[in-house]
Design brief:
Length: 98
Amino acid sequence: MGQKRCRVSVHDLEGTAHTVEVTADSLYEAVARGMKALQSKDWSAPGAFEASYIRVTVAEPEVTHQVSVKKFNEWLERSHGSPRDTIQRQKVRSILNG
């Protein structure tokens, strides 16, 4: 994907929408950076990321992706894949754990 500006949005369990703008190299990196930003600023209610989907809108040209939180977590927990996929997972884990 290359460095792109992205808007990451999630509706929490109470139906409140939370949106943050991040820069990321991949879709899952945008999800992780958005989750981290929302959590670190207390912009999201407890349990916000228990929602089913997180929406990522990539700027220039604008494209919107709806990411399943379940699929994101499954991808994050994988221990196999191509070297590129493995590096991306390590990068996303470091964002979430950093």
